[in-house]
Structure formats: structure tokens, C-alpha cells
Design a protein that fits this description.
The protein is of the alpha+beta class and 734 residues long. It folds into 4 domains: 205 residues, Dna Ligase, domain 1 (2-Layer Sandwich); 131 residues, ATP-grasp fold, B domain (D-amino Acid Aminotransferase, Chain A, domain 1), CATH 3.30.470.20; 87 residues, no CATH class; 271 residues, no CATH class. Helices cover 51% and strands 13% of the residues.
Length: 734
């Protein structure tokens, strides 16, 4: 039996009582909730609910009023230009302006009525449901997306009863596309207002006994093996809006056990009224558990199925009535970091952010990602190291960032402790995170047996031990030897790069850079600066219980000599002094944008003395830049804007005591005084004279070698800068 709808379309009788148009999803005003729905037609919430329904999940019956209906309402009432004028006139950071614009826009909607065609279509679809109490939910085209969520920014109306109330609820949902929060969110995320549209999902109301939200991954820790559930009594809007303290459950789904159960007060419950709308009921439910453990695990498994369907962790709203769970909406969790593609699921895997170790938190460019993903693993594999990633790539990419998979070594207690100690020194936050991740019992899969080191790896260890012995015996000579060899390595690499002609030859040099680090750089450098940093630990032990001993030991690290980064900063300060002394140059730098100064520098249009000083600086340090570990980022010699900004900052220093060279000398002097004061204090303690001698020796060793900690990166960046210049030359030849 087929009959024509008020829209001129057709629908056939079927087991599901919701409407079904035969029009395409881009032209239909009404779509069945279990049919094919596009994002453009049904919005984010509508698309996700339709997908759940088609997959067999229990989703309340209903229909979708598509974005075509919204656009038709706006066009019929000639609202678009008025809306955009108000929306575009409110700045995203001006809350009062956003509130005023929102109120004006929503008033425009309240003044208008849907066309008779649209009203008949909604009534027809509502009648097909049997005219039950319904929930009317907004579903924007920019809502509930994997990388963007407008959760809570558009209206939801519960227990809407009757055709007139439904018509008003639909218009109210449409107008909620223009709430102040939605206006601000679109502005912050560069979503044009003109592209925004909103569908409306109408579903039979579930008069839930219990309802709540479920996260298929822990939103606080990011653990994918944990499901987090909040549950309260009555309709879920009270929980979603933060008006109730719910019961809280944390579940480890693979093991099928509830890890945490915290019973909330649940003092407020939202209940449907017979005549429509809801009523807030205050009751004492602190002794009543909203869900049994069996129900918690059943719900967690349901969430896992939804996450598998969508291919990512989900934030699910659910309701329980008549002994059955129903899913009310599902969207991606946008607050947890994505996992790398193809990551092995053999227990907890430990990934360390390479960018965090280097202080680079921005995304890595595609070229930089390829270098780390393709070149670095081959260089490490060539060492024949005694461990591997167990089938998982050592370098993985997630969220456009580079991570090192240290899971294999983290499974071995001795290696784990050493890694933890190194991370605490290099990047304390990462070290603390590693300790937290490994603190729970049994988080890692069982450790495999470490492979016996290859002859090549043993030879590297022998070289490192030989260098360590030399550095311990003669720290100053050891440092000078390291510096000579690093300079020679850079010069030799530059000569090989200059001799390369083809693009293939220049790309191959990338592997040489990464091969140099483990084969030559680390055996040379790690014993040097590593023993220097070890001397710091020795100083802390020698200081013992002297007053403020640890603070004074840390004071001894100020003004650390032989640090290439400090030397670079002082060299740039000398350039600033040249700028200050050149006639008119200081005024030029104070009144000109840094980007304009950079253009003039590249065109060699700065005052002669200033130009010469900057070019001399760039000749030595021009291969550096912001985010310099990323080969795809420009270097200072390509774009010196960042240098001009630093020079402008230096020129604002009027107090000579704040000059970088003075600050450095003051720090070095404070370090010497801290040593003298500690030595004087411990001389009066047991074995004080011996400890004093040892402390002086440890301090000299630290000052001689610890400053080299920046040298491995400096050398690698120098080589990468040379390769980048060659690749750019090849690009210009194409």
C-alpha cells in the first residue's frame, strides 16, 4: 500500500513506523532515522544515529527533518542576510556582543512560522510515529564530527507532546544554531557562518528509569582499555547539564571487571510530565545504585560495539527502560589524542613524544614526518641493537606528531629504570607520565628475551667506554677533543653535500645524517655530557645534609660554559650591540615590523655594518630555526623574521645589568660561590676534607662537560640544514 505525502513524495508501509521518502537525501525534507543519511542532509547527530540504527543498535524510533527544511524556512522568511549580518558583526572574543547577536537572531525565528508544506510534512511524519511524546534534538552539519564537536551548544527539548508543540520545538532547535556559544565556537574554529545549517532529529521519548553518558576510552587518561560510565535516575538531561552528581563507574573491558565504583548523591531527577515538558524532582537516592555491575558491563560492551562501528572512541548518551539499553546519540571523543595507525594491541604500548623531548609541540610537516618514519628506523636497525620494537615500527606518527615506541625496552625492568632516569633529566614531565603509566600492576605484556648484541653494537659500546675513560681522566682535554671532532664531522659532511649533484644523491645524505648520530655522534658525545651530568648527581650526594644543599647544587649549574645554545645567544646579543651602535639602525629596528626587516635583510638592504654582522651570524647559525628538528620548516637563513624579533627584544634592554652576557657572567659567578659555600660547610663534617676535594673535582668535571648536552642536536641540525639547502637547490632546478 503506497500513499502520497504532503510533500508530493511517496512512502511504503514497513515494519518500522517512521517515514521514508523516495527522494534523494539532498532533496528530501523528511528522512527515516534508520535509512541512508548524509552529513549535509541530517547533520552530525542524525548521521550517527542513523548508522547505529542500521547496524542493529536499539535507537528510539523517529525521523530527521533535514537541513533542506531549515534552509527552506530561512529562505521563505528572507532571514539569511539578516542573520549573517548580525552574526558576522559580533566578534568571537566579545561575549556581550555574541549574546546580543544571538538574542536578535533567535527573535527573528520566533516571529516566523514554517510554510504549510513543511508543517504538513512534519505532522505527517509525526502521525506515522503514532503521535507519542518525543525528544526533539538539534543536529548541525558541524556537530559530532571526529575532529570537531558542538556538544551542548544547540537545543534539545524533551517530552514534546502534540503537533503544535512539535512545530514550536523544531523552530526553537533551528534558532539554536545561533546561540552565543555556537557563534563563538564557529569563530574559533574558522567555520563560516554561511555554511552552517541544522537538521532536527525527532525521536520517541524513552521515559528512562536510568540514563547517563558513556566514554569508550578514559577521557582523563586516554586509556582505550577503560570505559567510563556516569549514571543517574530519570531523563539524562539533568546529568548532561551538570545538575546532578551521578554514580561513576570505571571499567576495564578486556578483563570484564569494574575497576572503580563511586556512588553519587543523585539528588535531582528529571521526569516527564503527562501534559508535556519535564519536572525536576528532588529525592534522596544516595543509597541506591543506578546500575548493577552486570548492567555496567553490558553497557560497556554496547559502547565497545559502537566504537568498533565508528572506528574511534565514542562519547555515548544512553537510557535504560524496561530492562533494555537504548542509545540516544554517539559522537567521537575529541579530547583524547589519536593513536597511530596500525598500532599493535598486545598490551600497553609506551610512546614517547619526540617533539616534547625537543620542545616542539606544533604538528610536524609531512616532509619531517617522512624523514623520521623512513630514515631514522633504518639508521637504528643498522646498529644491530640488542632489542627491537617486536614488529611495531620504532617511529610512529599520531596527530601529525612523531613518537618513539619504547614498549620493548620498557618491558624489561632494568632498561625501564634507565629510560625513566634519562627522561626525568631530559624532560621531567614525560618522565613523570611514564612513571604513572607503569605504576599499575601488569600494564605491559610479558617481556621477551633481549637479543644478544651484534658485533657492531658491541664495538660501539667499546668505543663509548674508551671515550668515557678519557673524559673522566682528562675532562678539559676530552671536551676539546669532542668539539674538534664535531667541527670536523660538520665540515666533512658539508663537503660531501657540496659534491652531490643529483636529487637522489642529496636525499641519500639524509640517511647519512641519522647514521652519523648513533654510529659516531652518540659514542663520542654521550660519555662526555653524560659523565658531566652524572657529576651533578655525585654533587648532590656529596652535599649530604648541609643547609639548603640541593638548592646550592642546582645553583652550581648556572652559567654552564661550553653550551652551543648559550654561545649562540651571546653571539646574537653582539649583533644587537652592532645594531645599537650603527647610525639610525636602532630606530629602524624599533619602528619596522620584524617581517619587513627580514625581507630587507634577505635583499641586503640593511645598514652595511648591521648587514655584515647578521650575515656573519647566519653563516654559523643560519641552519637553525623554529621547530628545527622538522626538515620541512624554514631555517633562519631562509626567513630571519624570528631573529629580527629577538634583536628587537634585545634593543629594549636599557639596564646593563640585564644584558645577556652580564646575566651569564653573574650566573657563572653564583655557581662558583655556591661551590665555595658548600665546601666550607662540609669541611666541618665527618670526612669533610675528603668530600670537599671530591666535590671540587666533580664540579670541575661538570663545568667542563655538562654544557655539551646541546651539541648532538646542534651537530645534527647543522647537517640537516646543509641537506635542506641542497634539496631546495634541487627544487629550483626542477
Amino acid at each position: 500500500m503506497r500513499r502520497t505525502t504532503a510533500l508530493g513524495g511517496e512512502r511504503a508501509g514497513r515494519a518500522h513506523p517512521g517515514p521514508r521518502t523516495v527522494w534523494g537525501p539532498m532533496t528530501a525534507l523528511i528522512l527515516a532515522l534508520d535509512g541512508e543519511v548524509s552529513l549535509e542532509a541530517g547533520g552530525g547527530k542524525g548521521v550517527n544515529l542513523a548508522r547505529l540504527a542500521r547496524a542493529g543498535f536499539s535507537v528510539p524510533q523517529g525521523f530527521i527533518l533535514t537541513t533542506r527544511a531549515y534552509r527552506g524556512f530561512v529562505a521563505d522568511n528572507e532571514l539569511e542576510e539578516r542573520i549573517l549580518r548580525l552574526a558576522d558583526g559580533a566578534r568571537g572574543e566579545d561575549q556581550s556582543a555574541l549574546e546580543a547577536a544571538s538574542a536578535s537572531i533567535r527573535a527573528l525565528f520566533e516571529e516566523k512560522q514554517p510554510s504549510s508544506e513543511l508543517a504538513d510534512a512534519v505532522c505527517d511524519a509525526y502521525a506515522a510515529l503514532g503521535r507519542p511524546p518525543v525528544a526533539v534534538r538539534s543536529s548541525a552539519t558541524t556537530e559530532d564530527l571526529p575532529g570537531l564537536s558542538f556538544a551542548g551548544q544547540h537545543d534539545t527539548l524533551l517530552n514534546v507532546v502534540g503537533e503544535s508543540a512539535l512545530s514550536r520545538a523544531v523552530v526553537q532547535c533551528w534558532s539554536s544554531l545561533w546561540t552565543a556559544r555556537a557563534l563563538a565556537y564557529r569563530a574559533r574554529n574558522a567555520v563560516p557562518h554561511r555554511n552552517a545549517a541544522l537538521a532536527v532529529v525527532v525521536q520517541q521519548l524513552i521515559a528512562s528509569e536510568v540514563s547517563g553518558v558513556l566514554f569508550t576510552a578514559n577521557p582523563l587518561t586516554g586509556k582505550r582499555a577503560e570505559t567510563v560510565i556516569d549514571a543517574s535516575l530519570g531523563l539524562g538531561e539533568a546529568l548532561v547539564s551538570g545538575r546532578v552528581e551521578p554514580d561513576h563507574f570505571r571499567v576495564e573491558l578486556p578483563a570484564g571487571r569494574v575497576l572503580e565504583r563511586r556512588i553519587g548523591a543523585k539528588a535531582v531527577a528529571l521526569r516527564p510530565r503527562r501534559e508535556g515538558g519535564t519536572v525536576e524532582v528532588h529525592e534522596d537516592a544516595s543509597e541506591r545504585v543506578a546500575l548493577t555491575d552486570a548492567e555496567v558491563l553490558e553497557l560497556a560492551r554496547l559502547g565497545a560495539r559502537a566504537a568498533e562501528l565508528f572506528g574511534c572512541p565514542q562519547d555515548v548518551e544512553w537510557a535504560r527502560a524496561g530492562g533494555r539499553f537504548h542509545l540516544l546519540q554517539s559522537r567521537a571523543i575529541t579530547t583524547i589524542f589519536p593513536l597511530p595507525d596500525g598500532l599493535l594491541r598486545d598490551g600497553l604500548r609506551v610512546l614517547v613524544s619526540f617533539g616534547a623531548l625537543q620542545g616542539v609541540l606544533d604538528p610536524i610537516t609531512p616532509l619531517g614526518q617522512d624523514v623520521f618514519r623512513c630514515v631514522l628506523p633504518r639508521a637504528l636497525a643498522s646498529l644491530g641493537a640488542p632489542f627491537s620494537a617486536g614488529g611495531q615500527p620504532i617511529v610512529v606518527i599520531a596527530g601529525e606528531r612523531v613518537f618513539l615506541d619504547i614498549s620493548t625496552v620498557a618491558r624489561h625492568a632494568r632498561l625501564r629504570e634507565r629510560i625513566h632516569a634519562v627522561l626525568r633529566t631530559i624532560e621531567p614531565t614525560t618522565g613523570e607520565a611514564l612513571a604513572d603509566a607503569l605504576s599499575e600492576p601488569g600494564p605491559l605484556a610479558a617481556a621477551g628475551r633481549l637479543r644478544w648484541p651484534s658485533p657492531g653494537f658491541l664495538w660501539l659500546l667499546c668505543r663509548a667506554l674508551g671515550n668515557l675513560t678519557f673524559d673522566l681522566c682528562w675532562p678539559d682535554r676530552g671536551r676539546a677533543r669532542i668539539q674538534r671532532r664535531l667541527a670536523a664531522s660538520i665540515k666533512a659532511f658539508e663537503q660531501r653535500c657540496a659534491a652531490s649533484v643529483t636529487l637522489g644523491e642529496r636525499v641519500a645524505l639524509l640517511e647519512e645524517v641519522f647514521a652519523w648520530l648513533p654510529r659516531t655522534g652518540l659514542p663520542l658525545l654521550v660519555p662526555g655530557f653524560g659523565s658531566g651530568l652524572a657529576s651533578l648527581r655525585w654533587l648532590q650526594l656529596l652535599a649530604g645534609s648541609a643547609p639548603e644543599s640541593q638548592a646550592r647544587v642546582l645553583e652550581m649549574t648556572r652559567g654552564l660554559p661550553h653550551n652551543v645554545t648559550t654561545e649562540m645567544d651571546l653571539a646574537l646579543w653582539n649583533v644587537a650591540r652592532v645594531v645599537h651602535g650603527a647610525p639610525g639602525a636602532a630606530e629602524l629596528f624599533r619602528t619596522t615590523e620584524a617581517s619587513a626587516l627580514a625581507r630587507r635583510c634577505l635583499a641586503q638592504e640593511l645598514p652595511a655594518s648591521v648587514q655584515a654582522a647578521i650575515e656573519a651570524f647566519l653563516a654559523k647559525y643560519g641552519m637553525r630555526g623554529v621547530g628545527e628538528i622538522d626538515l620541512g620548516r624554514p631555517r633562519w637563513r631562509e626567513d630571519p623574521t624570528a631573529l629580527m624579533q629577538v634583536l628587537q627584544s634585545y634593543l629594549q634592554i636599557e639596564n646593563g645589568a640585564q644584558a645577556p652576557e652580564v646575566v651569564f657572567r653573574r650566573g657563572a659567578g653564583a655557581a662558583r660561590r655556591a661551590l665555595d659555600s658548600l665546601v666550607a660547610d662540609i669541611r666541618h663534617e665527618r670526612f669533610g676534607w675528603l668530600r670537599a676535594v671530591a666535590m671540587k673535582a666533580a664540579a670541575r668535571h661538570m663545568w667542563a662537560l655538562a654544557g655539551l648536552r646541546e651539541s648532538p642536536k646542534f651537530t645534527a641540525i647543522a647537517m640537516l640544514g646543509t641537506v635542506r639547502a641542497a634539496l631546495l637547490a634541487s627544487g629550483r632546478q626542477l
